[in-house]
């Protein structure tokens, strides 16, 4: 059952047009935890002088990863949308390196799923950004 | 003593539009999302023309939450940068016609950014405006509002804090 859920969530994430545009890859998903990464891409540069990726692209990765974590949680149905997301930027991601986000859906109520997430480049010890968010829990037939 | 004659309107427009274009089009990610800015005096409105690659939920369909976050962050950074360069541009200390991606002033760095998703982003164009609530020597606080059909019905808003670029000279 849980494996089914993870498979559906993975398929859903991988067919999202914007995730495809950023070449996102689901590295791990299940039990309320998701890990999604994306390659360095010159199209996503936010600071032309340093070649550092724009914070907005990191936000898109963290938001996708947060939603994926919610979808894979045992108490959440398949659908979700972001209510709010706060992102803290610790440092610039190193140009040329893959960015990986890991999100955990740590609590689910009838209506809300709470998520925290972290993004790193290839130096996995020093976070590039962290995020905290609340997501909707879409109950089928009631919306 | 007579007052200096006002600058011809074309000169003013060309200077401001050249500076804005250099600021916006020098950033690859802004071009990737297709964001453009419209200017009325110093007031900027960001435009996000709809495109299939901006979709986050193909079943509804709806704009990706990450696209909305990025759109608001781009609007905040350009709005703040625009406020920073305005005086230098108007006084002539900065020559917008000589600006290239290499010589652009450094952009502010995002410290944190909080997005409030108020309504589903519909598959159509979106607009946003930033308001610099505080701009100090080191830090700035910027609020952004985004809408689609009706200016009064926001689909998202955000507040961010930014580290100001070092002032040279």
From TrEMBL, chain A:
Stored NCBIfam families: unchar_dom_1
Gene3D superfamilies, sorted: Hotdog Thioesterase
One GO location term (cellular component): cytosol
UniProt keywords, alphabetically: Hydrolase
Lineage of the species this protein comes from: Bacteria, Pseudomonadati, Pseudomonadota, Alphaproteobacteria, Rhodobacterales
The Thioesterase domain, residue ranges: 51-125
Any Pfam family: 4HBT
GO molecular function, one term: 1,4-dihydroxy-2-naphthoyl-CoA thioesterase activity
Full protein name: Uncharacterized protein (TIGR00369 family)
Lineage top rank: taxon: Bacteria
Keyword Transmembrane: no
Keyword flag Hydrolase: yes
Automatic annotation (TrEMBL), chain B:
Boundaries of every Thioesterase domain copy: 63-151
InterPro entries: HotDog_dom_sf (IPR029069), Thioestr_dom (IPR006683)
GO molecular function terms noted in the UniProt entry: thiolester hydrolase activity
Gene3D superfamilies to which the protein is assigned, alphabetical: Hotdog Thioesterase
Full protein name: Acyl-coenzyme A thioesterase PaaI-like protein
């Amino acid at each position: 059952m849980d494996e089914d859920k993870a498979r559906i969530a993975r398929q859903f994430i991988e067919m999202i047009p914007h995730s495809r545009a950023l070449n996102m890859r689901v590295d791990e998903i299940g039990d309320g935890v998701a890990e999604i990464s994306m390659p360095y891409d010159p199209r996503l540069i936010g600071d032309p002088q340093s070649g550092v990726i724009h914070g907005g692209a990191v936000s898109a990765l963290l938001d996708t990863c947060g939603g994926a974590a919610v979808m894979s949680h045992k108490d959440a149905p398949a659908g979700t949308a972001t209510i709010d997301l706060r992102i803290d930027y610790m440092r610039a991601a190193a140009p040329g390196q893959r960015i990986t986000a890991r999100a955990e859906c740590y609590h689910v109520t009838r209506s809300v799923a709470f998520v925290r997430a972290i993004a790193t480049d290839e130096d996995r010890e020093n976070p590039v950004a962290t995020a905290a968010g609340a997501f909707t829990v879409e109950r089928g037939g009631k919306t | 003593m007579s007052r200096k004659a006002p600058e011809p309107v074309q000169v003013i427009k060309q200077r401001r539009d050249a500076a804005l274009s250099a600021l916006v089009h020098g950033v690859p990610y802004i071009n990737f999302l297709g964001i453009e800015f419209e200017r009325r005096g110093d007031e900027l409105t960001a435009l996000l023309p709809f495109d299939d690659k901006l979709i986050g939920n193909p079943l509804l369909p709806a704009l990706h939450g990450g696209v909305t976050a990025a759109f608001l962050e781009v609007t905040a950074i350009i709005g703040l940068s625009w406020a920073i360069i305005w005086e230098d541009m108007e006084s002539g200390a900065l020559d917008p016609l000589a600006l290239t991606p290499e010589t652009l002033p450094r952009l502010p760095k995002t410290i944190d950014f909080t997005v409030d998703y108020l309504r589903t982003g519909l598959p159509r164009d979106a607009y946003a405006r930033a308001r610099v609530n505080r701009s100090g020597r080191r830090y700035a606080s910027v609020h952004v509002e985004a809408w689609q059909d009706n200016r009064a019905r926001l689909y998202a808003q955000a507040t961010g804090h930014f580290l100001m670029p070092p002032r040279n000279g």
